[in-house]
Amino acid sequence: MLVYVLFGICGWIQGSNANLTVGCPSQVKTRHGIARITCTIEGEPLPNKEDVNWVKKDGHRLNADSSNRDLGYTSTIEEINGRFVVSLEITIFTKYDYDVYTLEAMNADGYYSNETEVVEGPERPQVFCPNRVKSNSGTAKVTCTVRGKPLPNKTNVTWVRRNGGHTFNANSSNEDLGYISTIEEKNGEYVVTLEVTLLTTQSYGTYTLEATNEGGYSYQKIDIIEGDQGVTSSSENLHLEPLPLLLSMLACCILFYHL
After folding, report:
1. How many domains, in total, are found in the chain?
2. Which residues contact 132 (CB under 8 A, 6 or more apart)?
3. How many other CB atoms sit within 10 Å of the CB of residue 208?
4. pTM exceeds cut of 0.85
5. Are residues 101 and 127 in the same domain?
6. Alpha carbon separation from 228 to 13, 131, 142, 231, 232 (Å, rounded)
7. Are residues 206 and 160 in the same domain?
8. Contact between residue 75 and residue 84 where contact means Cβ atoms under 8 Å apart
C-alpha cells in the first residue's frame, strides 16, 4: 500500500512539473498601424512547435512559426534558455483585426492557453501644408491641417522659423514680429492659419509646422517667397513698348481705310 502511495506522489510531482505556463500581455495597442504580441511558454516538456498556434476570436488559426502576407500576419517561435518566445506581428489592419488573439500550446500533459486583446492605439499626427506660399501686397497667409488619433494638445502644435530660429505656438501672435497664428478644431481635425503681416528679408524663408501627440512627432515645411507686391495705377505701369504701339496704330489705320 505504501508503495502505491509513493508512486502516486511521484506521479503527481511529475505531472506538476510537466505543466506549461503560457504568459501573454492582456492588452496590446497598435503603434503606427502595427501591433506586436510577445508571449512566453515555459515548462517540461516543451510542446512541439507545430502544436503552438494563434487563434483569433473569429476562429482563424495561424501556426506560431508561419506567416500570411495576405492577412498581414507574421509569427515566429524561438527557444531561448529553455523556454519558447513567441511573437506575432500584425501589419495590415482592418476593423476585424482589433480582436482577441489566443496563444494555444499542447504537450503530452494537456492544453494550455492565454489571450491578448489588440486595441487601437495612438497614431502619429499628420500635417498637411502647401509647399510654397507667395506674399501678396506685403503679407503672406498659410493654411494647414493637422490630424491625429488623438489630436495633439494645442500647446503641442508649433511653428518654427528656421532662418531666425524663432519658435512660437500655433495659437499665438506677436505684433513686433508681425505674425498672427490661429488653430481651430473642425470636423475632428485642426485648421492652422499663419498670417505674416510684416514681411522683411528675415521674414521670407522656411517655416515648419510641428505637431506631437502620444503616437509620435510629425512636421511639414513651407517656403514663404516674395510674390506680387500689389498693382499700382501709376503711368509707368501703362508704358507700352515701341513695337507693340506701332502695330496697334497700323491696325487702326487699316480698319479706318476699309471703313
Report:
1. 2
2. 222, 223, 224, 225
3. 16
4. no
5. no
6. 88, 18, 16, 8, 11
7. yes
8. no
**146 shares a domain with 84:** no
Q: How far is CA 8 from the centre of its chain?
A: 59
Residues 1-44 pLDDT 10s: 333 333 233 333 333 344 899 999 999 999 878 999 999 999 98
- Looking at the structure, tell me whether residues 224 and 200 fall in a common domain: yes
Question: How far lies 34's CA from each of 55, 114, 209, 216, 242, in Å?
Answer: 18, 21, 26, 14, 69
In a domain, 235, yes or no: no
Q: Would you tell me how many other CB atoms lie within 10 Å of the CB of residue 232? A: 8
Residues 91 and 188 reside in one and the same domain: no
24 phi and psi, to 5 degrees?
Answer: -140, 150
In terms of Cα–Cα distance, which of 51, 71, 46, 72 is closest to 63? 51
Do 100 and 135 fall into the same domain?
no
Q: What stretches in the chain show pLDDT beneath 70?
A: 1-18, 163-164, 228-259
CA-nearest of 39, 38, 59, 63 to 50 is 63
What distance in Å separates the CA atoms of residue 60 and residue 38, rounded to the nearest whole number?
19
The residue written with cell numbers 504568459 in the block is: 23
95 and 145 inside one domain: no
* Cell digits of residue 220: 511639414
